[in-house]
Write a structure and sequence with these properties.
single chain; 584 residues; 0% strand
Length: 584
């Protein structure tokens, strides 16, 4: 850790030092033309300087054959970077008013070259040293590559670990980064459940907010985002009563309470199983929010359906009743899908005309024309759980229900108003069917469902849950008297670029009898611990080498120390706070 900190400090300090020392890059012969001389002669106009500097970079990007060795990317990148350093050094020496603003047309080729040649960190530090505005969209690919890259990439992007020790770097970070960029880092560490780092960057976010306020460049949007992030952090780590104070402060200061803030609160409460608190929030939202985007409303509806499903796991009738009340036009659709029949009649068929069903009452605020794909997935989760509790999740019923689902998916795939449309469909419902098929010990049915979905639905690879493939193959291969169709599985794996993992290899050990030791050796070679009892027994029986068992136990500890039982006092305080907001 010490070495990493020293190396980082040297690296970033070099960036800052470049402001006070002349660039070592001497202009090449082609830089001594009229444009370069004109740049030298400018005394006041930063706008004209930026324009001429951009023109020089564009000329290098468009004429690669005249620069570098055979015009390859590496040489071209080095030439353009050298010119950029010359330009930024000259700009600093001339002390022109205003920032250096290079055009998108001049910088995008350089960013592309940095991405293709692996010089992202070098280019980023050069831009930082030159005080180039890196917050603009033309540098988004460069920023995202570092933000999502290796530890070194992220360390540079986040200015860690030296931010708290170096005031110069701290000031550089606050001036170079936008509010949204810092906020993104805070949210990342909240999601990673790293409160110390989240708090450190939250302090910087508040400093940036204050800086923008002093410069009168902050916006109402930043006000709301800051409070959203603070609420997210406090609720995520168990300080839920403090989150109420945040809401009250927002109301007192006249800061807009956004729909997104409520989704953060409700989702965080659900993770902590605070169901009564969620219902209190959901009941209060209609009197607080004047307007709510359909996308956000869909998320809130999903949370409502989840709470009802968790509160009534054996009675999908309650979820069905609320679903129909929220989406009135879907009563007929539920009949077509067989969901109403399997809940009320315990079989997949339509309800008779006039059949009496459960009723529910829902605020008009939550009524929308059509459900989202996520809403439908939540409904299927409730129905399939109901079937499991009532022992109606037979292979026959599951198969019929799945066929009806697939028929509607195919019919509505191009319907822009349907939750089954191509742009929104995912594998959520398929995953539920597969898991219930495995639960009733019918992996063959699960494999059939997987093949049907893949063959009949042209779903983009990015929205296909690849883990389903290994999950099905593992259970299909580990069950007795189930013949795995290796060729078909290989084609599916190739299509969705599914890597070979422990589940896949262990299944092959048992079912590919002619090559079972080969697969076992491959499993050991890839470093997978032989933890599965059945696999260990087979290895002992066959006399295969068996390393010492090293079991890793997962501890899902509640780091926020939330109580198991709901806090009635908190629910009352929550209601009081929301009542104040609704009358504000």
């Amino acid at each position: 850790m010490f070495i990493r900190r020293v190396l980082f400090k040297r690296h970033i300090s070099t960036v800052i030092a470049q402001r006070d020392t002349h660039s070592s890059c001497v202009p090449a012969a082609h830089t001594r033309g009229d444009e370069w001389q004109l740049l030298h002669s400018l005394d006041k106009s930063s706008k004209l300087f930026s324009k001429l500097a951009s023109k020089q970079l564009v000329s290098l990007a468009e004429l690669p054959e005249q620069h570098g060795d055979d015009g390859d990317d590496e040489a071209k990148y080095n030439t353009m970077l050298a010119r950029l350093k010359d330009i930024t050094q000259l700009y600093r020496e001339k002390k022109l008013d205003g920032p250096l603003k290079l055009s998108r047309h001049s910088t995008e080729p350089l960013v592309s070259l940095a991405l293709s040649t692996g010089h992202c960190r070098e280019l980023y530090t050069t831009l930082l040293s030159a005080d180039v505005d890196i917050t603009t969209s033309q540098y988004s690919k460069l920023r995202n590559t570092l933000r999502k890259g290796s530890e070194q990439d992220r360390s540079l992007y986040e200015f860690s670990p030296m931010l708290s020790d170096d005031e110069t770097l701290r000031l550089k970070f606050l001036t170079a980064y936008s509010f949204d960029m810092i906020n993104q880092i805070v949210v990342r560490y909240i999601q990673l459940n790293e409160p110390m780092l989240a708090n450190k960057y939250l302090e910087l976010l508040i400093s940036k907010y204050q800086l923008n306020t002093e410069l009168r460049s902050s916006s109402p949007d930043e006000d709301s985002k800051l409070y959203e992030t603070i609420s997210y952090l406090t609720i995520k780590h168990g300080h839920y009563k403090y989150a109420l104070k945040v809401l009250e402060q927002m109301s007192e200061k006249g800061i807009t309470i956004t729909p997104k803030l409520f989704t953060i609160i409700v989702t965080s409460l659900r993770h902590k199983k605070q169901y009564n608190a969620i219902l209190v929030v959901l009941r209060s939202i209609p009197s607080i929010l004047e307007d709510c985007p359909l996308k956000v409303k869909s998320i809130l509806i999903n949370e409502l359906l989840r709470v009802i499903r968790d509160e009534f796991p054996r009675e999908a009738k309650v979820v069905l009743a609320h679903f129909v009340e929220i989406f009135p036009h879907w009563s007929r659709e539920l009949n077509l899908l067989g969901l109403s029949g399997v809940v009320y009649l315990k079989t997949v068929r339509r309800l008779p005309e006039g059949y009496e069903v459960a009723q529910a009452s829902v605020n008009e605020f939550y009524r929308v024309p059509n459900p989202s794909n996520e809403n439908v997935t939540e409904l299927y989760a409730a129905v399939l759980n109901h079937m499991a509790h009532h022992s109606t999740d037979t292979s026959y019923n599951l198969s019929l229900l799945f066929k009806r689902y697939m028929s509607r998916v195919v019919e509505c795939f191009d319907d822009p108003a349907s939750p089954f449309r191509k742009s929104k469909l995912d594998t959520g419902v398929l995953e539920l069917f597969i898991k219930h098929s495995i639960r009733i010990r019918n992996p063959g049915l699960a494999f059939y469902m997987l093949k049907q979905f893949i063959n009949r639905v042209d779903l983009p690879v990015v929205r296909f849950n690849k883990k389903l493939i290994t999950y099905v193959f593992y259970h299909h291969g580990m069950m007795k008297d189930q013949h795995p169709v290796f060729d078909q599985m290989s084609q599916i794996m190739s299509r969705y670029k599914v890597p070979v993992d422990f589940n896949m290899l262990s299944a092959l050990v048992f079912k590919d009898s002619e090559n079972s030791q080969f697969w076992y050796d491959k499993l050991v070679e890839m470093g997978y611990p032989v933890q599965l009892d059945k696999l260990r027994r087979k290895a002992q029986r066959e006399g295969w080498p068996l390393e010492e068992l090293s079991r890793e136990t997962s501890h899902w500890e509640d780091q926020a120390n939330w109580m198991e039982e709901e806090d009635e006092e908190f629910v009352k305080e929550l209601q009081q706070s929301l009542d104040k907001l609704s009358t504000a």
